[in-house]
Amino acid sequence: MVSPPSPLLIVPGAVPGPPDTPDAAVAWHYGDPFGEQKAAAQRAAVIDRSHRFVASITGRERLSWLHTISSQHIAELGDRRSAENLDLDLNGRVLHHFVLTDLDGTLWIDTEGERGADLVDFLRKMVFWADAKPQPEPDYAVLSLLGPKVTELRAALGIEELPEIYAAVPLPGGGFLRRMPWPTADSFDLVIPRAELATWWSRLTEAGAEPAGMWAFEALRVAALRPRIGVDTDDRTIPHEARWIGGVSEFGAVHLDKGCYRGQETVARVHNLGKPPRHLVLLHLDGSADARPVTGDPVTAGGRAIGRLGTIVDHYEWGPIALALVKRNIPVDTALEAGPMAASIDPDSVPADDAPQAGRAAVDRLRGR
Asked: Does this entry carry the keyword Transit peptide (predicted)?
């Protein structure tokens, strides 16, 4: 499903996202990509993310039912609370990543635009006898506010206090404001009526929020090591590879102590007995190359493929960077190539995986080791 062009593309200076990318329907930048990144990191910026797919689930069993078929522990989520969640296939591979917020009897979901219809279709097929009704909400859209000075926009937002991470508050005129733990320490999403997009944009920019495009959001997301489904993942990705392990309090999308759900066997086996074959890392790219790689290109070492490129973006401080899934046993100082560019792994991005595993330790004890 291709998202229709955002009505905010008429904003002066708006440059649409690159064709044939997930962000083609919204503004990529407004003429100053690096300045927009600085605004989002250091001041306050508003970003059009109206190409995300919004859905809702109503019914008294909406939380307990979704809890049983997805990876996060949400049965007792609580009103005005949010979480991240995954839908996995039978082999534990990630099919969908979505953010959810329960508010006044409705569970709101937003996910990647081209994947939303498939997610709702899956949810509808799994309802059976439960009191839960999933349905698309095309009349709702997402804007994001980033930056430490968002606190100065409370009057424009019509609220007294900003919510804590994963909490939400209703907005005047409909919709809600939700705080997220990424891509920056001060990140907020507005899920609002689509008909009010232009009104909210004007209200926020007049109050001091600076327009920023998806380039800014993506650069900060990559720097924060947060993957994007379908861009930084492929059809083999399991949650451990993409840093999605963790409950709500850990800002993850996979709770390790909950009941059965599709794909749980793989999650439990990797957590207790094995290691993921790949892990997500940050690459620094050599910007002197004449050509650029693209998402999906191989990452190679000595001519041998050892990984896959995800998002490639220019960061206002770090230059060209990328997320990549690479083999777990590749030394951090290995000289790499990403398409035509030399690349190196950021050592601070390599996840620690040397902690003792409960299942492996139990097996060793039984064998007298």
From this structure: yes
pLDDT reported for residue 274: 87
Q: Are 209 and 145 in contact (CB under 8 A)?
A: yes
pLDDT of residue 229: 98
How confident is the model over 240-274, as pLDDT tens digits?
A: 999 999 999 999 999 999 878 999 999 999 999 88
Note if the bond before 183 is cis, omega within 30 degrees: yes
Calculate ∠ Cα 297-303-307, nearest 5°: 40
Please tell me the number of Cα atoms within 13 Å of 278 on its side-chain side. 22
Q: Six-digit token pair at 218?
A: 């993506």
- For residue 203, what is the enclosing H or E element? helix 197-206
Nearest-5° Cα angle at 339, 337 to 341: 60
Encoded tokens for 349: 């991005």
Q: Is 282 exposed, middle or buried (0-12, 13-18, 19+ CB in 10 A)?
A: buried
Looking at the structure, give the CATH architecture of the domain made up of residues 1-276: 2-Layer Sandwich (3.30)
Q: Is the pLDDT of residue 362 over 70?
A: no
Domain regions of the chain by residue span? 1-276, 277-351
Lowest mean pLDDT across 187-196, 253-262, 263-272, 348-357 = 348-357
What is the predicted pLDDT for the residue at 258? 87
What's the Cα-to-Cα distance from 333 to each of 284, 301, 323, 329, rounded to whole Å? 12, 11, 16, 12
Six token digits for residue 315: 């960061």
- CATH code of 277-351, in short, is 2.40.30.110
Supply 57's token pair: 């689930």
In this prediction, residue 361 has a pLDDT band, given cuts at 50, 70 and 90, of very low
Three-point CA angle 202, 24, 223, nearest 5°:
85
Run of H or E residues at 69: helix 62-69
**Full-model pTM:** 0.95
Predicted local distance difference test score (pLDDT) of residue 1:
59
